[in-house]
Amino acid sequence: MPKYVAFLRAINVGGHTVKMDHLRLMFEAMGLQNVETFIASGNVIFDSTARNTKPLEKKIEDFLQKRLGYEVATFIRSTSEIANIARYKPFRDAELSREGHVLYIGFMADTPIDESRQKLHSFSTEVEELHVFEREVYWLHRRNVGESALSGALIEKMLGMRATLRNSNTVKRIASKYA
Length: 179
Hints:
Layout: E1 3-8, H1 20-29, E2 33-37, E3 43-47, H2 53-68, E4 74-78, H3 79-87, H4 93-97, E5 102-108, H5 114-121, E6 128-133, E7 136-141, H6 152-159, E8 163-167, H7 168-178
Antiparallel strand pairs: 1-3, 1-4, 2-3, 5-7, 5-8, 6-7
């Protein structure tokens, strides 16, 4: 049975607090198996017989909307996709290992159109560098995030679609544990 990771947007941010044991129970109530959560930021790992993740994303979004009372965008990747995402190197190792540099990975439902990609790339500066590959956006931030002009909301606006961001270390830890 395939193992998947659901990256949930709007879990334990902006006043929307959900206990991880409650989140696991909701996923189990949807018939998903071997449900685990990974840190309290909306990362849920589970097994499902589903082969097409689009209907599964919709099912989870609809279920969470009913149970939590607010929209929870859901982005599903297989564990093999997570391994590939964690291995992908859009920036040089020297850039990634510098003190104060942080790489974030944004998960999107679809590959953005060229116009959106160009708009996003135009926001790259010496402090922020953005790269899109398939359904992920890689954001290299070279200073404290509090000093950034970028945000997840602005990235979504430029792309014209919803996304959720994770620190690349979280993605690598998920890949290491489950892929």
